[in-house]
């Protein structure tokens, strides 16, 4: 499968009638008008950021030091408040992704957290902090015990984030633009068993114009790299967890429309290998079903996905050697 990225550049055509003297300030009018127009559009638009936070206790960074989860949570809260601080119209949502469920940490659909006035802190920022901490604490207390390592439901959490964004976009008033993006923070290993769900999420986000960013805290995840490349997002692997907040503010705080003006880390080389449907492993060469396009690492006479029966491949025909012509013949 080939992916074609087409960058659409916006061309501004300025029509000028007659000659304008160089001594006047008329030459500055088109630039000022464009700046005012762009600033008004930026003020009226809504930037929605949905953060998917992996809270699976089987992550290596969490098993190594449980305090790392607290450090990550503090950085996420500060980053979310920084996003809200940029513009009054900005919106924020935080989802918790674990091995058994996906939950909203902020905002809460039904009940609100009891908020008391805190001196020196904006009420909206205090609401985000208290709501996220209380919800995550309740989720971790009621989570089932793990008998062994388990995968995080990242693909399902991203699907829920897409549904949330789609619902908000339908309720936006006419004339107001909403720019939405998803930021995934995870320290889990490669989730090859969720390959099909990941691909559905990536291409749905591309169709809806939603950017997917990924901040990998431990491993280099090839599937999420593909999603960032397909949706024109940013992928970053954090080298030092102590500087997580600095990485978030540097790379992921600017809107995708402004990133081309900044000096950001170069994008990594994307690994576009597919995951086989039989062993859920990434492969370079495999067998593809001609009916449902399922990928298998080994040949099977029956497709386990659509149950199509294939003919057993016979031996390759061997061509006979041609006899050399002699002078007598």
UniProtKB/TrEMBL annotation:
Gene Ontology annotations for the cellular component aspect, listed alphabetically: transcription factor TFIIH core complex; transcription factor TFIIH holo complex
BP GO terms, sorted: nucleotide-excision repair; regulation of DNA-templated transcription
Keyword hit for Zinc: yes
Keyword DNA repair found: yes
Assembly and binders: Part of a TFIID-containing RNA polymerase II pre-initiation complex that is composed of TBP and at least GTF2A1, GTF2A2, GTF2E1, GTF2E2, GTF2F1, GTF2H2, GTF2H3, GTF2H4, GTF2H5, GTF2B, TCEA1, ERCC2, ERCC3, TAF1, TAF2, TAF3, TAF4, TAF5, TAF6, TAF7, TAF8, TAF9, TAF10, TAF11, TAF12 and TAF13. Component of the 7-subunit TFIIH core complex composed of XPB/ERCC3, XPD/ERCC2, GTF2H1, GTF2H2, GTF2H3, GTF2H4 and GTF2H5, which is active in NER.
Xref: PANTHER family: GENERAL TRANSCRIPTION FACTOR IIH SUBUNIT 3, TRANSCRIPTION INITIATION FACTOR IIH TFIIH , POLYPEPTIDE 3-RELATED
Name used for this protein in its record: General transcription factor IIH subunit 3
